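Reading a protein record of the kind used here takes only a little practice. The record below shows the convention in full:
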Amino acid sequence: MRAQMHKVGQEIRLFSRKLADVTNAFPELVNAAAATVESSSVGVIDFILDGEVMAFQDGKPLHFQELQRRLHKKNVTEQIMTEIPLVYVVYDIMYFNGESIITKSIKERKEILSNISFKEPIINSSYKVVNSEQEIIVMFEKSRDIGHEGLVLKEPDSHYHLGKRGRYWVKLKKELDTIDAVVVSAEYGHGKRAGLLSDYTFAVREDNNNNNNNSSKFRTIGKAYSGLTDVEITEMTKKLTLIMIKDEGYGIIVKPEIVLEIAFDSIQKSDRHDGGFALRFPRIKNIRGDKNVADIDTLQRVEQIYEKQAYIMSKIGRHGSKSD
């Protein structure tokens, strides 16, 4: 979970990317921040850090859902902290000892971070200056093997741009898998997409019955609004309007006819969708005009992908069934 850590004297607060105060969920981070010092300085230091809070155990990140369990607790006990250990990985600093340093280069900001002696579970992120595509590939594969989503590539001389990555920071990720799903409803977009059906709720079949579509129930597992061009969105709006079952004002319910190939980074359990799962970071990879509703994936396949995720193996390992 992306989070800023603010420290002024012994006052420490953590904020989510939506500016929610999440300090109470992470008491061990507050204690570690209070003990943080600069190696070349004596006394208290102040800072604003940018980083990620991760549920983390045995050298591997656990699934985001583990972290959510802590966020939903009003009182974080010692038992919860033991069951769901975490780290705060620092990858940038915006303010240090009374000075805003966002206009300094990332090289300079990393130098400042290297002189701060963080106490666990606060740790400095690892980074490397690379000069070739092959070096990036090696680092990317290593990151994926550990269980991370990928890398962030940063221009060494870049400033810190508030609220956005900009063209100087690029996320490098690779999809976990794809699923063929059918559109069951669509909502109108905003801004330049106003008046166009651009947000698509999609579903899979509940069973494996390919012979009688009428006997199959559809279970929603997510909503996607990225991946299509403006031309494709305009064409989708026309097609969806023709198969509309009900107009709800903000969107429409449609006949389950249009099949999409959906790429995603992971699957998590969810009460938001009646399929019981949600695809994380879903995006439309293809409009599958060559497939019909009988060809879409089943809830069983969604569950199989969920169970094969790396974090499940790490959970098995920490309970003693597997230790590698």
Q: What stands out?
A: Helices lie at 27-34, 64-71, 78-83, 106-114, 133-146, 230-242, 299-308, 310-318. The first strand starts at residue 2 and ends at 8. Residues 177-308 form a domain with the OB fold (Dihydrolipoamide Acetyltransferase, E2P) fold (CATH 2.40.50.140). The chain has two domains: 2-126, 177-308.
